[in-house]
Amino acid sequence: MKSFGKEHFRAIGDLAVSPLGLGTVKFGRNTDVKYPQPFQIPEPGALAALLDKSADLGINLIDTAPAYGESEERIGRLMGANRPHWIISTKVGETYTDHSVYDFSTTATTGSIENSLHRLHTDYLDIVLVHCHSVDEQILHSTPIIRDLQNMKDRGLIRFIGASTNSIAGGLLALEEMDLVMVTYNPADQSQLPVIQTAGRLGKTVMIKKVFASGHARNMIDGLKLAINQPAVASIIIGTINETHLQENVQLAVDILNNP
After folding, report:
1. Which residue out of 35, 68, 102, 185 is catalytically annotated?
2. Phi first, then psi: what are they for 112, rounded to 5°?
3. Selection from 41, 120, 127 nearest residue 92 by Cα
4. Overall pTM surpassing 0.90 (yes/no)
5. Is 96 a catalytic residue?
């Protein structure tokens, strides 16, 4: 079984992260999602096995959010004493019950971080991203969200801050004011390439979302090659609850990294 070694890891500041990270939307939410097939949220035992398999494959980055239903709470219960292995990335700005609610106020941001720390059973968060919607530049420019996250970073509650963006302008603003950015990048949507290239010039890093177009891509290897071969890309988030699917993608990624 192929797995990531330390030679494959990439940097987000002083964090060494695996080239693939585990996305966890499906850990806690199966409504109002864009996947091609419906799915059931797995039982805790299945999720525990998936976390163990991920660690065995050399994955150390896990990506979650308050908007992912019970994802944070489940991760917190399952992670237990293995917390030091994991680099946790979560988000602020969006919550979800039966629909998404966006709030980028100081009160909401502070409360969101406190809730995430509690649910994840940790006293610090490695990465926190602003969960932007379509008006990402306006959110980052006109709300106190960056200042508030920076304040919590200064207090030691967060190690690195960034934004999950949708537009080039939003991504560039995040790179200017924050540590990193998360963008969509796949063979069908390469519109964010200027953001990725700018990150490289600034010495900052990128996390990739939707490399498989939320499960709609037919050729997985093309998406992985496209993203991994960008020097500024630190990690590609793969959202799955299927151990076989995860192992296949790690093996593809290791082959690409070993044979550039």
Report:
1. 68
2. -65, -45
3. 127
4. yes
5. no
